[in-house]
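seq as requested:
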Amino acid sequence: MSLKTLVFYGSYRSDRQGIKAARFMIERLQQRNHEVILVDAKEYDFGILDRMYKEYEPLQAPAKMQALAEHIRTADGFVVVAGEYNHSIQPGLSNLMDHYLEEYFFRPAGIVSYSVGGFGGVRAAIQLRSFLSEMGMVTISSMLAISKIGDSLNETGTAKEAALTNRADQFLNELEWYEEALQRQRQEKGTPF
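struct tokens:
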């Protein structure tokens, strides 16, 4: 079964440590033959939410917004990479994701959190779980927290220790289970609304 997975990343900082975590997850997904799309808030840069995608007339949304809507609609699942800002979700990530809603429905999301300290961004991850569920995604029970990201991953996103790669693969085993199950369900039965 072929799977398409979007990796969302929301930092706008000039010295972005979390991009290493996004690169790490992209590489792990590609090793598993996923079609992977990086959805980087800094690249999409829709600005502060004024109009959601669905609030535009058909084919009138900005081209980048339209293209991303199509990627979300055709995805089997999502990996959301989130740093912790003031014990919460990055504003760039929530702003980017808030531009869409129905496009996410009935697809699983896995949460990868990170921090420069020892907690690995878990406080943001807990809030992110509620945020993603409200948007119609099934969040898998496993979360992948990366502590001391500067020591855990190099600039290209390669893990410095095998334990992190092993944890990531277990995390992706669960995500794939949900991606395959929900893909099959959408194909066989459609969605309830």
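The chain has a mean pLDDT of 95.
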